[in-house]
Amino acid sequence: MELITTCQTPLGPVTMACSQGGLTGLWFEGQKYFGFTLSQECQPGNSPVFDQTRQWLDIYFSGKKPEFLPPLAPKGTPFRLSVWKALTEIPYGTTVTYKEIAEHIAAKKGVPSMSSQAVGQAVGHNPISIIIPCHRVVGSSGSLTGYAGGIEKKIRLLQLEGTNTSLFFIPRNNPK
After folding, report:
1. CATH number of the CATH domain containing 100
2. Per-residue pLDDT tens for 89-127?
3. How many angstroms from the chain centroid is the CA of residue 71?
4. CB 74 within 8 A of CB 36
5. Does residue 120 form part of some domain?
6. Same-domain check for residues 92 and 163
7. Most buried of 11, 53, 163, 175, CB within 10 angstroms?
8. 84 and 42, same structural domain?
9. Rounded to a whole number, what is the distance in angstroms from the first to the last CA of the chain?
10. pLDDT tens digits, residue range 122-144?
11. Gap between the Cα atoms of 105 and 85, Å rounded
């Protein structure tokens, strides 16, 4: 059984989901893949996980780096889970490329290479926005691409962390 609730952030409302294991979802209203990992059995409710997540979001949106994570329990394939784990290792206020994540995971697995596109797919399906920081991933060319919550939100999150977003560009074919 999963519980769901909503809360307001400076970037708009988010929906949170949790199970006994921890936070399973955090989606901006209307984002791509909204709620795609929710189980059929979910209901509105409250949980200490939601309280911890709200506290984390309050600290984050005040412009500070939270020194803790709420318990996380994303649901996905082993490959996606490995990509999402790698995202949690990206330091606050920094960016990495899809290629760098692919190289990092390939090295951990002891394989010569890994597809940056496969990593991009996994990053795009991240069910716990903001806390699993997929907004810190950029294209190798410096493009701000691939944020399910929308490019404007990605830019605002990066700016909140002190990232100089003028170093990046938005590809013409990328929907806002």
Report:
1. 1.10.10.10
2. 999 999 999 999 999 999 998 999 999 999 999 999 999
3. 15
4. no
5. yes
6. yes
7. 53
8. no
9. 35
10. 999 999 999 999 999 999 888 88
11. 10
Q: How far apart are CA 141 and CA 168, in angstroms?
A: 8
The pLDDT, as a whole number, for residue 176 is: 47
Provide mean pLDDT across the span 69-83: 96
For residue 135, give both structure tokens: 């907004």
The answer to whether the CB of 24 falls within 8 A of the CB of 17 is yes
Number of domains in the chain: 2
Q: Please name the residues in contact with 64: beta carbons below 8 A apart, sequence gap of 6 or more.
A: none
pLDDT of residue 148: 83
User: How high is the pLDDT of residue 30?
Assistant: 85
* Exposure string over 63-96, b if 16+ CB within 10 A, otherwise e: eeebeeebebbbbbeeebebbbebbeebeeeebb
The one catalytic residue in 7, 18, 42, 134 is: 134
Distance, in Å, from the CA atom of 128 to the CA atom of 138, rounded to the nearest integer, reads: 18
Q: At residue 125, what is the residue type?
A: H
Q: Is the pLDDT of residue 174 over 80?
A: no
Q: Identify whether 134 is a catalytic site residue.
A: yes
Supply the range of the domain harboring residue 144: 78-167
In a domain, 94, yes or no: yes
